[in-house]
Amino acid sequence: MTGVPEPSQTFAKPGRLFVVSGPSGSGKSTLVARALADLPRPIHVSVSATTRPPRPGERHGIDYYFWTPDQFDQAIHNDQFIEWAHVHGHRYGSLRSEVEPYLAQGIDVLLEIDVQGADTVRRLYPQAKCIFVMAPSLADYEKRLRARGTESEESLQRRLQTAQYELQQAARYDCVIVNDDLERAAAALRACLSC
Ligand code: 5GP
Q1: What percent of the chain is modeled with pLDDT above 70?
Q2: Ligand 1 pocket: which of 112, 121, 160 to mutate (most atoms <8 Å of CB)?
Q3: Which helix (H) or strand (E) is 147 found in, with range?
Q4: Against a cut of 0.70, is the pTM above it?
């Protein structure tokens, strides 16, 4: 869902916070979109800010807020992030404005962030439910990243190296989903988001 909630939308309870992490090439964005399409309640998917340049087809304000390093520095200075991290050579951060107004209005929020960001969120929001998405094997990450065709060889190798570290963090998550079949994995994610 999009749009900051209107003040008139009041709910009894604060919304719940969900974190979805997983190595590049785990198919987590597609999986999240598929799972949310069939979820009976709205969940706001937080739009992060990043210093990474947009890929073809990516839109500012939809996929990310694509900021210059100076804009990102300014946002850190202004305490606009609940967390931010260096990932694959760029900076990414979750904005307070994408999280706090929604939770306050009783709307659940989902953050698609890396394992460092998940650590910060666990400290700030101990009730957050953290979900890890992985591909069936290490070879699948490379296959999926190459098929996506969005990364240079250097970026692809960097992402594969990071994947090995990220996979070691899976045991720290509340739910682990193996994304071997989209429909099955989407059903598993919906179950995690519903309990
Ligand atoms: P990509 O460049 O493929 O869109 O994302 C690279 C990585 O950055 C992914 O693991 C993604 O989950 C993570 N990421 C995206 N937004 C954020 C954020 O706001 N904070 C953190 N810590 N990681 C993020």
Answers
A1: 94
A2: 112
A3: helix 138-148
A4: yes
